[in-house]
Amino acid sequence: MKYNSVVTARFAAGWGCLLLFLLVSLFSMPVLAQEEPVTVDTESLLVVPDSLPLEYYPLPPSNVRMKDVPNDAGGSLLIEWDLSLDDYEGGKVKEYRILRGEAAEGPFEELGSTARGTASFTDNQAKRGIKLFYKIAALNYEKTNGEFLWKASSESDVAGPAVSTAQWFNLSRLNIFIGIIILCGAIIYFITAAKRGKSFYIRKIAGIEEVENAVGRATEMGRSIYYIPGISDMDDVQTLASLTILGHVSAIAAENDTRIDVPVSKSMVMVTAREVVKEAYSKVGRPDSFQEDQVRYITDDQFGYAAAVDGLFVREKPATIFLIGAFFAESLIVAETGNSIGAIQISGTAMPAQLPFFITACDYTLIGEELFAASAYLSREPKLLGSLKGQDLGKAVFLLAILIGVILESFGVPVHELFSVR
Amino acid sequence: MRRELPLAIAFIAGVIFFIAYFIPHPPFNRFENWFSDWFAIVAAFAIWLGALNLMKISFIKVIRKKSDWLHALLIIISFVIIVVIGFYEGYRGLHANPPFSFRDPGTAFDWLYVNVYSTLSATMFALLAFFVASASYRAFRARNLEATLLLLAAFFVMLGRVPIGDVITGWLPRAYQMSQWASWIMNVLNTAGQRAIMIGIALGLVSTSLRIILGLERSYIGGD
Amino acid sequence: MRARELIVSGLIILFFLACYFFSPKPMEFSRSTSVLIIFLLAAAFVYVFIRTFRGRFIGRRVVFIFVGVALVLPFFMKFPLPLQISPEVQSVYDALEKLPPHSKILASFDYDPPSAPELQPMAVAFMKYAFEHDLKIIIMGLWPQGPQQADQAIQAAFIENPDLKQKTKYGVDYVNLGFQSGYEFVILQMGQSFKSMFPADLYNTPYDSIPLLKNVSNFSNVDFSMNFSAGKPGTAEWVQIAVDRFQLPLAAGNTAVQAPMIYPYLKKGSKGKKQLIGLLGGMAGGAEFEKLTKKPAKATTYLLSQSFAHVAVVIFIIIGNVAFFREKKGKK
Amino acid sequence: MGFWDVFGIWLASALTIGIISFLYRDNIFYKACEAIFIGTSAGYWFIILYWDNLYRKFWTQATDPTNPEWYVPWFGFVLGVLILTRLFNKIGWLSRWPLAFIVGAVAGLYMMIYFVSNAMVQVSSTIMPVFTGSWVDIIANTTVVLGTFCGLVYFFFSKAHTGVFGGAARVGIWFLMITFGASFGYTVMSRMSLMIGRIDFLFGTWLGMIR
Fold first, then answer.
1. Domain count of chain C?
2. What are phi and psi for residue D27, nearest 5 degrees?
3. Do D36 and B129 touch (CB under 8 A)?
4. Burial profile A74-108: b = 16 or more Cβ within 10 angstroms, e = fewer
5. Could you report the per-residue pLDDT of A182-239, keeping only the tens digit for each?
6. Strand, coil or helix: A325
7. CA B186 to CA C285: how far, in whole Å?
């Protein structure tokens, strides 16, 4: 692939803006640190309306204090208070009401209520940047089937002003930020290294090793090979991986002069698959023996395609069948017929729900990521190799973390915090 | 212009939404919600493409009297019926007093939905019950250790999840009957396997997304 | 070939018309007929075993007939089923039991009619339980047909328990906010405010004029939540966003094919906190929940057919593999 | 039960039998039902997306003066219109802009959502003190940790599966096979439940033979 300047420019831009953003958030850290504590503690006045005797009134809560909820878009304040002295089992306090106003003496509106015994409430309608004042009312009342007989409430003193602010960086997600930066950095590093021609080791994958003898079997028996690239279109990564493997299989088939048929269910896949097979034939020096109709479009309909492929299997009786790509509920219909005509079947998909059917019905199966590893191994494309290596590094980090983490956890060190999400 | 701009758009959109995850400060916190609206609206437009394409293909089949033109005619008729009724019920519902939704039980659209659409899609999937059984008999073999483990796990989960499993293992104490085996397989063995697969898929998706953002993955744009 | 096709379709139509006009309604086999049927089924399986053992496989359509019989006949049989309650279903029930009256439950319906056979029975049982224990239900759905399924579940609950109908009032005891598209972004926005995502309920009454929703602004004002899901968007998204980010107490009911992917969320994490309180898996989960609420209904009757079908599939796997090993031994 | 309800049940039963007839062989009844299914499902989603997305999410919010973010849906509208340019091949390439925006944004978002919930959370819940609680817990926890660890080793491609590493990979594939077995069992269960639902409709709602 030509090493074009646009891609490097984009790398630089991407890294540049990420670094810039990191610097901005680091400098903004000290500014956030000094949050001014907001506590007001004065003697509370007992409000005594004329009708109810004094002892109905519970003692009000005290020491009302507010704290801006960190790592949010502003707009939420955590209000805490000390419970009223009358707040005990059978005591005078039944509920607390939270009241908010935009001025110390200004009109107060009721936000919500909390049951007896709770000492905090989150107000997430506190408009960002506006000074707000709060007071908490302890409430005593008598209710029969939903109607209030009488209500007595006494309010704490006014606390405030409190302002909810928004933060530019969600500190609780720092661990995730570092994790994703390491992973993306590794992937980008390995892709650029692979572009510069560095070769990487990929372990043996059973399904791919078997391709030679599977095609060999078809040649001995003088029968054809069928390659089914799944029923998804070109926007599915599994279809792209499958077409890479198709190129490899077609090259071996062309060498052994064995016919390979590729019935497809999407017209765009047909166009690309024809290119892949034609190129494989010419690479092996057999451009003339490739016929256009080896790769043909059947139908877009899921079950129609499965029924048509079954018909082809039963009539043509291929010796070797490849089922590689994105499959859905029709996978077991096709795999079953392939098995019933005694063909060797090599399958591969990343669809978890279909893997059980392929594993039991086919001789070899590329399981999930092995499909992508196989296409990287065969195509040697830098972006595929680099991604695979980057993902492997991620797995290595997770494997080490689990190994060390479990050991340390047994001694009480909270290693899982490093990976936990708040 | 045709290839560079889309790649630039994809890069900018990707980086912005990647960063938006870490910035609570407005307007970044609103990005995910805005995007859900944009995604829904674009999806509504995209289905016009799909529907018009289906109608175009079907019309060509009918006009040129292709082999399955009756099949195509039936597709057009059923599409037109449900679309016309959908629009009619929708407008009637909006202007009625009190307004009702076109999906309410009792509307013609709901009748078509319950008796035609959901019946057909439920039966289409129900067919698979038969295909799974025939594949079990004719194709699912314990050909190697891995396939044997798979069939054994399936055996215990299927029988454990229905009362018959406990009838068979009735002679064992309650805590060791087959339904407990099935629960243990699900809660311990399956959890471990699922986690390994989920982590693998997550890492795979991160690398694919990164390639899309950096413009290395261009298949979704198609040819020039 | 044309003639045979017409004869077969003629036979099918005749069979169903005969059932429609002449069969006893409802038809129930006596205990002895049920045992006889099971005996005949077993004999048929033995015959298949012998035939396959000798190398002559039965055709695909014969297997279909076996499965059809195994699914249909149990509907007419009566068998007491010893149903064991699995821990994940028990924890859902215990969590509901702990809810004091008048607590608000957010019930999200993310499935469609094709998955109704598995999820509708547990949804009906959940509605019956909630209304009988005076719990308030706020219904919404991430799938277009979800809220309709919720409505059908409520109507079914009213039919099975008529006095519930008078007791529960729409807008006070339950509200249906309808469907909202946008997949998991809907959950995200509900974390900040329900109202912004559901300006009005299914019947276009504004959010603020619904008494039940008076001081319900987002997840922190909801005591519990139940998610019925058949795929994506579903329980996984609710856990990833509502539980992981907004700490919403969540239990779920899932189709059988979806349940395995959800089990990891049930495991206690390192902080001893489970992401998901409990899970009703497939029809068996529904039947167990019905047993816990002491009201056996659809799920329980379906389970007998399910049991027969599972046994049939297991026997077919065994027969297939025995023949496979005999063939392999023969070849060696 | 009005006329339309009875007719609806009979129609639904006919369609159900038509689809099930595919088990016998691919016949004209099945082809007719399949055509109705393709047409109705395309039309159904066409209507749902029109009313729920275009009308309710775009139109009502975009033309509602009280909505402070009324401009947001308009950007979605522009993206949507650009997608429609794909119909005319002269200006079809314009449709790549909205497509690129959606694909890029989804890439950015899904990268985070999946990385957090499928990778970080799962790793964090696997790192747990194993030797606490009753011996049942100890066995369960060690098995989960061992299974997840070995499963990941199997999907590790940069080292050959030989020696101890090969052993761990082998144990890993065993765990994966049991997981696939469990999901096979559950798939059978859910397909059977679907069929039971259809039988309950045919023999219950239609023929009335089930109580």
1. 2
2. -125, 180
3. no
4. bbbbbbbbebbebbeeebbbbebbbbbbeeeeeeb
5. 999 999 999 999 999 888 888 888 888 888 889 999 999 999 999 999 998 877 778 8
6. strand
7. 13
pLDDT band for position C32 (cuts 50, 70, 90): confident
Q: How far apart are CA A197 and CA A191, in angstroms?
A: 10
**Contact list, B203 vs chain D (CB under 8 Å):** 119
Q: D125 vs C264: CB contact, 8 Å cut-off?
A: yes
Residues C263 and C118 in one domain: yes
Closest Cα partner for C106 from C226, C210, C194?
C226
CB half-sphere exposure, C91, CA atoms < 13 A: 18
Q: Which of C143, C96, C101 is nearest to C122 (CA)?
A: C96
- Strand ranges (E), C25-126: 104-110
Q: Which amino acid is at C59?
A: G
Query: Is the same domain home to C94 and C45?
Result: no
Q: Check which CATH number belongs to the domain holding C148 and give it.
A: 3.40.50.10160
Contact C249, C158 (CB under 8 A): no
CB contacts of D119 in chain A (<8 Å) are 394, 398
Other Cβ atoms within 10 Å of A331 Cβ, number: 28
Rounded distance, CA A358 to CA A353, Å?
10
List, for residues C222-258, the tens digit of each pLDDT value.
899 999 999 888 998 899 888 887 888 999 999 877 7
Do C164 and C226 lie in a common domain?
yes
* Spatial CB neighbours of A336, under 8 Å, sequence gap ≥ 6: A361, B131, B134, B135, B138, B139
Count of beta carbons in the 10 Å neighbourhood of residue D64: 12
Cα distance between residue B164 and residue B158, in whole Å: 10
Lookup: tokens for A17: 């803006």
Residue B149 confidence (pLDDT) above 80: yes
Do C277 and C316 fall into the same domain?
no
Backbone φ and ψ for C63, nearest 5 degrees, come out as -60, -40
Same domain flag for C281 and C317: no
| Domain of residue C151, residue span | 87-296
* Contact residues for C71 (Cβ-Cβ < 8 A; gap 6+): B129, C305, C308, C309, D192, D195, D196, D199
Residue C101 and residue C182 in one domain = yes
Sheet holding A295-297, edge to edge: A295-297, A260-264, A225-230, A320-326, A344-349, A364-367
The pTM is what?
0.79
**Phi and psi, residue A132, nearest 5°:** -130, 150
Question: Could you say which DSSP state residue C103 is in?
Answer: -
Q: Mean pLDDT across chain C, nearest whole number?
A: 86
Upper half-sphere CA count for residue D138 (Cβ side, 13 Å): 6
What are C231's two structure tokens?
């795929």
User: A124, A127, A360, A420: which to substitute to probe chain C, counting the most C Cβ within 10 Å?
Assistant: A124
Q: How many CA atoms lie within 13 A of C138 on its CB side?
A: 27
Residue C231 CA to its chain's centroid (Å): 13
| C-alpha–C-alpha distance, residues A276 and A246, integer Å | 7
Q: Average pLDDT for residues C73-89, to the nearest whole number?
A: 82
Identify the contact set of chain D against chain A, taking CB-CB distances under 8 A: 22, 26, 34, 38, 111-112, 115-117, 119-121, 123-131, 145, 148-149, 152-153, 155-161, 176-177, 180-181, 183-184, 187
Q: Is residue C108 domain-shared with residue C225, that is, in the same domain?
A: yes
Per the structure block, which two tokens stand in for A52? 């109810």
Contact C180, C173 (CB under 8 A): no
One-letter amino acid of C24: P
**Triad A29, A31, A35: Cα angle to 5°:** 110
The vertex-D194 CA angle with D188 and D196, nearest 5°, equals: 100
d(CA A106, CA A89): 34
- The domain spans of chain B are 4-129, 143-213
- Testing the interface with B: which of D60, D109, D134, D198 to mutate, by most B Cβ within 10 A? D109
Question: Do residues C234 and C180 share a domain?
Answer: yes
